[in-house]
Amino acid sequence: MLIEAKASDFALLLVGNAPHPFVLVPDSVLGPPEVLRMLADLAASIRADFAPSAWMVVDDDEIVGLLSAVRPPAAGELHIGYGIAPSRRHHGFATRAVTDIVAWAGTDSRIDRISAETAVDNRPSQRVLEANRFRVIGSRRDPEDGDLLIWERSV
Fold first, then answer.
1. How far is Cα 52 from Cα 141, in angstroms, rounded to an integer?
2. pTM above 0.85?
3. Helix axis angle, 123-131 relative to 93-105, nearest 10°?
4. What is the full per-residue pLDDT of the chain (155 aa) written as tens digits?
5. Measured between alpha carbons, how far apart are the two ends of the chain, in Å?
6. CATH number at residue 42
7. Which residues, 6+ apart, have CB-to-CB distance to 81 below 8 Å?
8. What's the number of domains the chain is made of?
9. What domain range includes position 33?
10. In angstroms, rounded to a whole number, what is the distance separating the alpha carbons of residues 90 and 129?
């Protein structure tokens, strides 16, 4: 299930706490502090023009991951990124989170398509997108992340 991640939620996550009534995954972190700070800042900058901008991926009141807009939506496109705590990967949480964001986007008149990027060798993330009927529409080289596939689907 996706729950909107607000600024107050990120503030708690940054100090290792979960927003009430949720708990954090006890055996692995959602991400390093610098990544959580970057996601909090990104969500805040996008939230000024588009909300919600980030979501917690929750299972049985446990926060197992995060999903967010990667940049402000433009021309009807919501570009997403997601991550699941290492100990909770390969259990379908990312697939369900993307399914949920696609369903949510279908009810929001501001969005007509969703895009995402995966590393060319990240088969698990590619399977998440394939399961949600995304298709590869191109590729690009990122100086930090290397070769990426660009995925998209309409809502």
1. 29
2. yes
3. 40
4. 999 999 999 999 999 999 999 999 998 889 999 999 999 999 999 999 999 999 999 999 999 999 999 999 999 999 999 999 999 999 999 999 999 999 999 999 999 999 999 999 999 999 999 999 999 999 999 999 999 999 999 99
5. 19
6. 3.40.630.30
7. 67, 68, 70, 116, 117
8. 1
9. 2-154
10. 14
